[in-house]
Amino acid sequence: MAQPKRRHSHSRKNKRRAHDSLSVAGLSICPKCNEPKLPHRICGNCGYYQGKQIIKGSEI
After folding, report:
1. Which among 8, 39, 53, 60 is least buried, having the fewest CB atoms inside 10 angstroms?
2. Predicted structure pTM score
3. In a domain, 18, yes or no
4. pLDDT digits over 12-59, tens only?
């Protein structure tokens, strides 16, 4: 198995890991109840999606 000849520096290691951080989920506002929700999902508060009631709000 191959072994590295030299140690990788901290900056080189951190450059490799630069894209590993988590990003915050983008939230949108429900037009019915003005609560934050994930985009393209049923609203957890009122149960509406694209202006139509899919489920009752208490079922969630």
Report:
1. 39
2. 0.55
3. no
4. 888 888 888 888 889 999 999 999 999 999 998 899 999 899 987 555
